[in-house]
Amino acid sequence: MSGRLGAALDGLLALARLVLGARGGMRARLRAVLGVPEGQRAAMAVLRFAKPHLALKSNLVACYEGEGTLLLTRAADVREVLAREAEFAVVYGPRMRALTGGRDFFLGLQDGELYRRDTEALAAITDPDDLARVLALARREAAAAVEAASSAEGEGAIDLPPALAARIPALMVQQWFGVTGGLSLEQLVADATALFHYLFSDLRAEPEVSTKAMAAAARVNAAIEKSRATAAPDTLLARACARGAAGDPAFDADGVRTQMLGLIIGAIPTLSKASCLAIEELLQRPGAIKGAERAARAGDEPRVGEYLFEALRFSPVNPIIYRRAVADTTIGATRVPKGRMVLAANLSAMHDGEVVDAPDQFRPGRPFEQYLLWGMGVHRCWGDQVNRAILPAMLLPLLAKPGLRQVSPPDGAGTPFPCHYWLAWGLRSST
User: Is 148 in the same domain as 23?
Assistant: First the structure.
């Protein structure tokens, strides 16, 4: 208790400092403070002590049906909700079906016969050599992008998403997934981002987000269909089509398109945003960026990964994972009625001093199971192993450059996903 009390007091002081440093009226200041990871961490530290089960009358996730909200900030509660999948359901099904034309993707399904059929079918079309191919692609393209942005004098500048962080996952979609028909890399990135925004981040249910997503879904679905005949034999699309032709119901005509669409949505914006957030967090910590640079210059991908994942502990792609109670139940002594939207704050869980040693300290090399970066349990991200491997492979050449610095902050052009993030490097840049 004393640990949580101390963290709460530190959180209050941090909130006061951030609010005083913000601009505008009080509401605008609070919105600005709670919109950044530092402010979120401070507020959650207070809640972990004072109100770990915060019940609200309104549903904060307006894009999905729910009766009120319950925000959970302690690690044990967060993990319990994610583990009790039968009682706290994923909610993405209606919007996913809107994108696919009616077919369910496993991400929106509860554990059961259909969920297991589709996840097992996806596992069956992956090959043990696939990850090595993806890593070779990431290393080659990342080195080329950084080299192309470097001058003979050792200076350089790069716009991280289009040059590297979004481009490489898009190339992965083309070369490993096999979706090449009719979409440029730039359009593929834009469409995957619009779809991800609609499914997971459109908390206010804005009509413009829906309109963009429907147009994006039409283009991506058409690209998948166009790619069927030309997909190389060693791609996921070709393997899925072959299994469908052999009678696998998970990969009938609608199933192939649905499964590929779901994988594309998760692949590009997640990796691009994670790259930007991790680099941004490292650059705020002089010791951390120097350590990451040393590891990168030594070519030590596992050590680079430890710095990136620790950075993402402070600034994850999704600071909150939401579920909905399917029946009346409880969390601890708190009653959770059927239909209540439950927000499991994974950002807070990764900073709960009751289970994480020295949570406010930046410590690369923590046990990976302490990280809740891509969920846990049945609905842990399908590509979590790819993410874990490809992030350090993509970012190592950039982190190896001396004097890496931010030129301008990440810019999402009004969305939660960075479209641009300019960085520079060189010894003169760091002086």
Answer: no
Residues 111 and 129 in one domain: yes
> Where a domain ends, among 9, 32, 50?
50
Listed residue (285, 116, 361, 359) closest to 372, CA to CA: 359
Same domain for 25 and 75, yes or no, is no
How many CB atoms are closer than 10 A to CB 68? 16
* Residue in the block written with tokens 């166009």: 226
Would you give the DSSP letter of residue 331?
E
In 3D space, the residue among 248, 268, 261 whose CA is nearest the CA of residue 162 turns out to be 268
Residue 109: the pLDDT is: 80
Same domain, 15 and 115: no
Task: Judge residue 23's burial from the number of C-beta atoms within 10 Å of its C-beta, 0-12 exposed, 13-18 middle, 19 or more buried.
Answer: exposed
DSSP readout, 374-422? S--GGGS-TTHHHHHHHHHHHHHHHHTSTT-EESS--B-TTSSS-SB-E
User: Which residues on neighbouring strands pair with residue 334, listed in sequence order?
Assistant: 331
Query: What whole-number distance in Å separates Cα of residue 277 and Cα of residue 421?
Result: 10
Q: What is the pLDDT of residue 95?
A: 95
pLDDT by residue (tens digit) across 159-169?
999 999 999 99
* Pair 122, 31 in one domain: no
- The number of folded domains in the chain is 2
Question: Is the Cβ–Cβ distance between 425 and 405 less than 8 Å?
Answer: yes
pLDDT of residue 306: 97
Q: What is the predicted pLDDT for the residue at 213?
A: 97
pLDDT, one tens digit per residue, over 174-211 is 999 999 988 999 999 999 999 999 999 999 999 999 99
Give the residue ranges of the chain where pLDDT is below 50.
1, 429-431
* Other Cβ atoms closer than 10 A to 397: 21
pLDDT at 427: 76
Structural domain boundaries, residue 183: 52-430
Residue 167 is predicted with a pLDDT of 97
- Give, in order, the Cα–Cα distances in Å from 212 to each of 61, 75, 415: 19, 36, 12
pLDDT score of 143 = 98
- 240 and 333 both lie in a single domain: yes
How many residues are present in the chain? 431
pTM of the model: 0.94
- Domain CATH code at residue 416: 1.10.630.10
